[in-house]
């Protein structure tokens, strides 16, 4: 596509302004003339070939255009009869340069905002800019609309007409029809009329449709008063503020395209989601906030980059009050839909507008995202993420996973609530659930080789950090090898309990014989594990059974401080009571001395406590230790019983997840 800009006229009605230069070189703002603004708008839409007709001060105009240093190939065509003919003859003079492509046709004195050109270019048909809201002008163009198409364009048409501006996009086949009639007019000597007169005779074949730009800026400048009015409108347009939120770790051509579109609307501020906000709904960012912010600061056209601390736009929109918010149309449905509705509500408070562009489904972008996910799953990146999440969020949550499918549930389950998105931060590989899934008792009968295979199954399809239930850790000599193996695999944390002998589940408490390890011996195990690990990322968490075994608060605290001194990276305190009082008491007393070591809880019994309450108390990790197993088993048992009772599967349909959802849950690669 190329543009033809008609600049052959003298512009006599502008008075002294055009004594020494063509009208198109008139300044309309501190940084633009009419023409430079037109050309920059064309460049922003990748139109890089311009045919320009000249006449009055043609050499001044040509020199000016070249001096703008824009990425445009200019073809200048002089109308030698510029003072005796109308622009129909200028088009005739340039006809040989206009027969090979679609064109943008505009007069050299038309000032328009980028949204107008965008609307023109997005039309599937040949089209002209019209306005249904502007009053019909007495002396300027009107377009007669019949059956949805433009049948006539001219000054003297008032019936069934709209105000129109000489800004067209004309498809090649339609342009050849119009151009042929322009040639006929000029060859017959009709050179002082409008080019639109030639169109009016062939409008049944040259099919041009109206594009209603309503209140958008698109106006000709014919007089000094026009210049004053339009310059004021340009000033308003230039003050417009645009906001766009980004969370990406890498910037591809799709991002650049939408940023360029946003820049056309006004001064663009990009809000970069904080690391915590990204991690809350998407995945842990590969690149930290400061680096992601710098990525956008270095993009041409971006006016400002700020931090958006929440997934919700409400606070930042009420602070910045942008005229436009730009987003892809991918949030019209899905879990982001409520956020979109919230944005529309806030914009309505002050008259802002949401602009949505089609979301790109380019397979290359999906492939790039898949590569990022694969990178997040790599052991070295996954291993250290748990520490970072704890530092970033203060409190994180983990849910048990014992297979690839439960890992995917932990990975992908997301809830939008109160303008925030919630998901689990990590996965807990419970020995109880792993044993149960294999039909074995929870007495460490499932060996480490088998449990490592479970880790492999989960790691293959997920990216989130893994916390491993190490039971007692076994013999110290064996524990060091477990640490090295888990660290090498990319596991983030192992939790070992301070008991010895045959393992019995802690929730049995004193109902079964359970023997607690000595402080000294367990400290030696912790030290050996810390000495064995190769990176600072891997964490060893000491699980204290004193409250379970009714040894008292003082014993629990003594052990906690000793284990931290021995090198434990975190402390897990456990209780089988429904009343959380002793958990809160422990955390409060522990925090009075140690404000930094992460505290882990497993609220299987004391399950009325909310995550906010845990966080306020000083807890850092909440593990939902067995809930997928405990809910999955009765559901499967119920399905089996239903089939047996009815001797067919139909009654199970309402219990079953659609096959399509299962397919979507499980990645193809």
Walk me through what this model shows:
The chain has about 675 residues and is an alpha/beta fold. It has 4 domains: about 1-235, Spore Coat Polysaccharide Biosynthesis Protein SpsA, Chain A (Alpha-Beta Complex), CATH 3.90.550; about 240-365, 3-Layer(aba) Sandwich (Rossmann fold), CATH 3.40.50.620; about 380-625, TIM Barrel, CATH 3.20.20.60; about 630-665, no CATH class. The chain has 25 helices and 30 strands. Strands 1, 4, 5, 6, 8, 9, 10, 11 and 12 form a 9-stranded mixed sheet that branches. β4, α2 and β5 (about 75-80) form a beta-alpha-beta unit. The longest helix is centred in the last third of the chain and has 20 residues, at about 625-645. The chain starts with a strand and ends with a helix. The model has no long low-confidence stretch (mean pLDDT about 90).
Short description:
The protein has 25 helices and 30 strands. It is of the alpha/beta class and 669 residues long.
Quick one: biggest sheet? 9 strands, mixed
Number of domains: 4
Average pLDDT for all residues: 92
- Globular, elongated, flat, extended or rod-shaped: what is the shape? elongated
Give the CATH architecture of the largest domain: Alpha-Beta Barrel
CATH class of the largest domain: Alpha Beta
Sheet/helix structural class = alpha/beta
Identify the notable features of this structure and list them briefly.
alpha/beta, Spore Coat Polysaccharide Biosynthesis Protein SpsA, Chain A, Rossmann fold, TIM Barrel, 4 domains, 25 helices, 30 strands, 21% strand, elongated
């Amino acid at each position: 596509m190329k543009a033809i800009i008609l600049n052959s006229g003298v512009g006599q009605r502008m008075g002294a302004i055009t004594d020494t230069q063509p009208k198109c070189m008139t300044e309309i703002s501190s940084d633009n003339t009419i023409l430079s603004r037109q050309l920059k708008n064309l460049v922003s839409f990748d139109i890089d070939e311009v045919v320009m007709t000249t006449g009055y001060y043609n050499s001044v105009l040509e020199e000016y255009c070249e001096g703008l240093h824009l990425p445009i190939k200019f073809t200048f065509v002089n109308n030698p009869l510029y003072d005796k003919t109308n622009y129909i003859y200028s088009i005739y003079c340039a006809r040989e340069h206009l027969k090979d492509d679609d064109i943008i046709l505009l007069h050299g004195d038309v000032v328009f905002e980028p949204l107008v050109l965008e609307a023109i270019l997005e039309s599937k048909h040949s089209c002209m800019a019209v306005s249904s809201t502007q009053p019909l002008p007495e002396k300027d163009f009107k377009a007669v609309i019949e059956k949805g198409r433009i049948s006539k364009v001219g000054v003297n048409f008032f019936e069934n007409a709209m105000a129109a501006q000489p800004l067209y996009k004309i498809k090649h086949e339609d342009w050849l029809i119009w151009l042929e009639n322009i040639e006929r007019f000029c060859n017959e000597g009709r050179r002082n009329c409008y080019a639109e007169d030639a169109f009016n005779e062939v409008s049944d074949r040259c099919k041009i449709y109206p594009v209603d730009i309503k209140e958008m800026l698109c106006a000709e400048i014919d007089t000094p008063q026009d210049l004053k009015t339009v310059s004021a409108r340009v000033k308003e347009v230039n003050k417009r503020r645009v906001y766009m939120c980004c969370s990406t770790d890498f910037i591809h051509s799709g991002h650049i395209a939408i940023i360029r579109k946003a820049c056309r609307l006004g001064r663009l501020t990009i809000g970069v989601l904080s690391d915590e906000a990204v991690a809350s709904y998407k995945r842990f960012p590969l690149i930290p906030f400061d680096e992601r912010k710098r990525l956008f600061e270095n993009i041409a056209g971006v006016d400002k980059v700020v931090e958006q601390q929440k997934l919700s736009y409400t606070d930042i929109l009420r602070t910045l009050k942008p005229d436009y918010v730009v987003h892809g149309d991918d949030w019209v449905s899905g879990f982001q839909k409520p956020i979109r509705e919230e944005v529309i509500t806030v914009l309505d408070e002050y008259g802002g507008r949401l602009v949505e562009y089609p979301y790109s489904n380019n397979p290359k972008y999906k492939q790039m995202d898949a590569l990022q996910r694969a990178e997040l799953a790599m052991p070295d990146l996954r291993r250290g993420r748990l520490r970072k999440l704890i530092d970033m969020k203060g409190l994180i949550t983990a849910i048990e996973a014992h297979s690839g499918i439960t890992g995917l549930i932990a990975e992908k389950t997301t809830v939008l609530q109160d303008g925030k998105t919630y998901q689990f931060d990590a996965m807990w590989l419970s020995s109880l659930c792993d044993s149960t899934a294999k039909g074995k008792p929870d007495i460490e009968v499932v060996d480490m080789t088998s449990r490592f295979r479970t880790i492999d199954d989960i790691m293959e399809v997920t990216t989130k950090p893994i916390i491993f239930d190490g039971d007692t850790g076994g013999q110290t000599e064996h524990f060091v090898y477990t640490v090295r193996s888990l660290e090498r695999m990319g596991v983030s944390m192992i939790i070992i309990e301070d008991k010895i002998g045959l393992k019995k589940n802690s929730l049995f408490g004193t109902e079964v014989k359970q023997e607690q390890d000595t402080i000294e011996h367990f400290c030696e195990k912790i030290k050996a594990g810390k000495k064995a690990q190769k990176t600072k990322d891997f964490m060893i968490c000491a699980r204290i059974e004193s409250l379970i075994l009714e040894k008292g608060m003082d014993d629990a605290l003594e052990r906690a401080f000793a284990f931290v001194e021995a090198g434990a990276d975190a402390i897990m305190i456990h209780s089988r009571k429904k009343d959380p009082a002793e958990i809160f008491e422990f955390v409060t007393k522990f925090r009075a001395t140690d404000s930094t070591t992460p505290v882990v809880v497993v609220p299987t019994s004391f399950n009325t406590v909310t995550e906010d309450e845990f966080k306020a108390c000083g807890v850092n990790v909440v593990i939902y230790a067995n809930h997928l197993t405990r809910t999955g088993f009765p559901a499967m048992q119920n399905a089996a019983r239903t089939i047996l009772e009815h001797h067919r599967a139909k009654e199970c349909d309402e219990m079953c997840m659609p096959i399509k959802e299962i397919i979507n849950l499980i990645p193809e690669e």
